[in-house]
Amino acid sequence: MDVSEAKRLRVGTRVKFEPSAASAVLYSRAPASGSVGTVTAVSFGASKRKSYLPGPGGGLLYVDWEDVGVCGVGAGDVERV
């Protein structure tokens, strides 16, 4: 999935984690490949809740994974279910 599509994903959208071999080694905490989760929003301050955070390498999409809980993953490492 490209970055522009990840920015438009709504909270509640189901996604599957499919990292490339190169990006899989970069995560310190991530679900198993093929895991399914739900896009969620996290708090950034008193009133800001975001499901996507722009940044280097495309930014992070916040997902509530069934096996590890909420964590941010790269937009290129997920696909819509």
Low-confidence stretches: none
- Share of helix among residues? 10-25%
The overall pLDDT average reads: 89
- Give the percentage of residues in beta strands: 35-45%
| N-to-C CA distance | 12 Å
Supply the number of structural domains: 1
Rg (C-alpha, Å)? 12 Å
- Class inferred from helices and paired strands: mainly beta
Number of strands: 8
Question: What coarse outline follows from CA principal-axis ratios?
Answer: globular
Topology at a glance:
Elements: H1 3-8, E1 14-17, H2 21-24, E2 36-39, E3 42-43, E4 49-50, E5 52-53, E6 60-65, E7 69-74, E8 78-80
Antiparallel strand pairs: 1-2, 1-8, 2-6, 3-4, 5-6, 6-7
Folded structure, characterized:
- There is one protein chain.
- This protein is mainly beta.
- The protein has one domain.
- Strands 1, 2, 5, 6, 7 and 8 form a 6-stranded antiparallel beta sheet that branches. It has a two-stranded antiparallel ribbon with strand order 3-4.
- A hairpin with a 6-residue loop joins β5 and β6.
- The longest helix is centred in the first third of the chain and has 6 residues.
- The radius of gyration is 12 Å and the shape is globular.
- The termini are close together.
